[in-house]
Specification:
Layout (H helix, E strand, L loop, with lengths): L5 E4 L8 H15 L7 H18 L5 H16 L10 H5 L9 H8 L4 E6 L3 H7 L9 E4 H4 L7 H10 L4 E5 L2 H10 L3 E5 L15 E4 L2 H9 L1
Parallel strand pairs: 1-2, 1-4, 2-3, 4-5, 5-6
Helix pairs in contact: 1-2, 2-3, 5-10
Length: 224
Amino acid sequence: MRQNEVLTFDCYGTLIDWETGIRTAFQNALAKTNGPAQLAEKAAEIYEVEERKVEKQTPHLPYREIQAKTVLEVAARIGWGLSPADSSFLAKELPRWQPFEDTNPALARLSKNHALGILSNVDNDLLDLTLKHFRTKFEIIVTAERVRSYKPALAHFKEAQRIIGDRPWIHVASSMYHDIEPANKLGLRAAWVNRKHLPKPDRFSLADIWEVEDLLQLAERLDA
């Protein structure tokens, strides 16, 4: 691999433990509003599905509004009488969500021979707060606020391509829906971080897609 090769990453779910963050946030909000605590797990599962719908329907909204709107959809589905005034808890808790254990060691290793970037469905200020959890600098930052679009729409990738130019590039992500599929559609090389050991999808070719269990395995493969 050449030293000027660029690695871009999805942030939440790939570098940051998004699922634990979402689940904990719902647990805290349910407790605060005297909601049924046993619904936290179900709420977190529904949230992922509903957020995709809201992003697609209202791509012009800032991410914190996407989150609040989605939370209210989730509350309606599980019978949780949440008021709009209490629906913004995810944006407040997101900056505290932690990296996976392998994230910082892998980024430190990868940054020695690669330029790093982040392509994220988030507002600029929220990502700025998350960046404090990383010990490595990112050369390329593309947010939903910047391109006024949400992955899997292609605006993030096209803006990254404009910045990267003709340097070799690999996009790294855990979400097939948000990242790997659109990268594949554009003919980009990609690395699928399959932490959950999910089965490989058969709806498109994986010829240009690597599968790794975590980011340290990716670092080992790139160093080989």
